[in-house]
Amino acid sequence: MKNEITSNDFLLESALAKKLYNNYAKNLPIIDYHCHLSPKEIYDNKQFSSLSELWLKGDHYKWRLLRAAGVDEEYITGKKDDYEKFEKWSALVPYLIGSPIYHWTHLELDRFFGIKDFLTPSNSKEIYDKVSSMLEHRKTNDLISMSNVEIVCTTDDPIDSLQYHKLIAKQTKLKAAILPAFRPDKLINIEVDNFIPYIHKLSEVVEYDIDNLDKLGDAIEDRIKYFTNFGCKLSDHALDVMQYVAHTEEEVNKIFSLRLEGKVLDELSIAKYKSYLLTYLGKLYNKYNWTQQYHIGAYRNLSTNKFYKLGPDVGNDAISDSQVSIPLARLLDSLDKTNELPRTIIYTLNPRDFEVAISIMQCFQSGIPGKIQFGAPWWFLDSITGIEKQFEALGNVGLLARFIGMLTDSRSFLSYPRHDYFRRILCNYIAKQVNKGLFSPDINVLGKLVSDISYYNAKEYFGFVI
User: For 22, 121, 392, 426, which has the most beta carbons within 10 A of its beta carbon?
Assistant: First the structure.
């Protein structure tokens, strides 16, 4: 039985779609400007012991599906051996109808290991053994190089020494640039238990006491300067609940001091601190010519049982329906009214908010093409329908032609075929617009649209120096 997912025409429904993909998208490099790959594993050029370690360990997308199928946790995050875990996955795969993970599974097997068969229980041992035997020549750096990756932006804490980025920069074997990205969530989430210990760690890193708001601001800027020295051009914020309320610096200094004393803050005080800090950070990003990313709308750690047994980032999260429009608009305006609004990428996890976010971002465009971006469909949305809905929303309310394209947002070194998946859907979407008579058939214009969205818009937008 032929596996159409591994064919060159997968998702390309017309001659025009095939032409756009093959001539303008297929061979372009990848700029993966947001992911969660480990810099240490890249530096070590890690060799994985088995397909299970490479494919199933840490992949909460697959864990959620296994739990939904009734698979015992011992076969997911527990102590069963690698092949027993893989058997459970291969038994589930044939039933993943409608799931993008079914497509990714077969794209990854094909692109990295040349396996074009459907994964089934009957061939799982053969595929497992074949892939495991190839892993000596499929280390982390091989997987990055095979994917034609030009730039990788990892996700890094402000107190990180970036020691592995330093070491990677001295290597010559890896063609891709591995750059840090600044993730200051622990600075912003003042209400959490580890906030005070974290501020103490930051004090140790900058080598002075952070006992007031001014010192906190100095420490943040010192770390931004440090990250800039290693090629950092982006920050990223997990804004699960979007907040912005009026505040004064005097109020926030008092709030910060109370928290350092161990006091429990009320909700308004927490919101004032976060509002201040996001505005302060945005001004610094503008000063250092960075791009800020707002990931909005995750509802995390829903099952208390799972959280206490397994911890965070285990597939225990969902889509939130909290309010977005008013606090997002106020936050952007707080930066725009002093002409200090940096390049900004807005991601909303709830598709209900696509047009909301796009209509807001359009109010703050100025000077730079596509300065305020509506980010790629992420997490629960990087499916055919989610990607097409994002295209439709950007086309209806924004400017799709300036969109900076796809990212992996992944911890897996096998996730790069998602860029190819995205490009195929893009080419097919544009071809459908033309074939319905809704857009000009000028191949020069169409080719530029495809290549810009796939690669060139991001290259221009971020201005990476490598």
Answer: 426
320-341: per-residue pLDDT in tens?
A: 999 999 999 999 999 999 999 9
Which residues make beta-bridge pairs with 31? 151
Task: Tell me: pLDDT of 466 over 80.
Answer: no
Residues 119-138 have a mean pLDDT of 95
Q: Beta strand 149-153 with 177-179: parallel, antiparallel or unpaired?
A: parallel
* H helices present in 171-237, as ranges: 185-188, 195-206, 213-228
Instruction: Specify whether 120 is located in the same domain as 256.
Output: no
Would you state the pLDDT for residue 171?
Answer: 80
**Under 8 Å between Cβ of 10 and 424:** yes
Cα–Cα distances (Å) from 199 to 214, 231, 428, in that order, read 13, 25, 49
pLDDT one-digit tens code per residue, 43-81: 999 999 999 999 999 899 999 999 999 999 999 999 999
User: Do 86 and 224 fall within a single domain?
Assistant: no
* pLDDT value of position 180: 98
Q: What is the CATH number of the domain that holds 78?
A: 1.10.2020.10
Residue 268: strand, helix, or coil:
helix
What are the strands, taking DSSP E only, across 144-211? 149-153, 177-179
Both 152 and 86 in a single domain?
no
State the total domains in the chain. Answer: 2
Residue 276: which domain range? 4-47+145-462
Question: Tokens at residue 51, please?
Answer: 């397909």
User: CATH number of the domain that 299 lies in?
Assistant: 3.20.20.140
Question: pTM here?
Answer: 0.96
Q: Are 202 and 295 in a shared domain?
A: yes
Last residue of a domain, one of 122, 138, 154: 138
122's CB contacts (< 8 A; 6+ apart) are: none
pLDDT given at position 269: 98
277 and 248 belong to one structural domain: yes
Q: Which of 64, 59, 60, 57 is nearest to 79 (CA)?
A: 57
Q: Which of 138, 165, 190 is the last residue of a domain?
A: 138
Alpha carbon distances (Å) from 36 to 55, 98, 174, 378: 15, 26, 18, 13
142-118-29 Cα angle (round to 5): 35
Q: Are 152 and 35 in contact (CB under 8 A)?
A: yes
Question: If 0-12 CB within 10 Å is exposed, 13-18 middle and 19+ buried, where does residue 416 land?
Answer: buried
**How many residues does the structure list for the chain?**
466
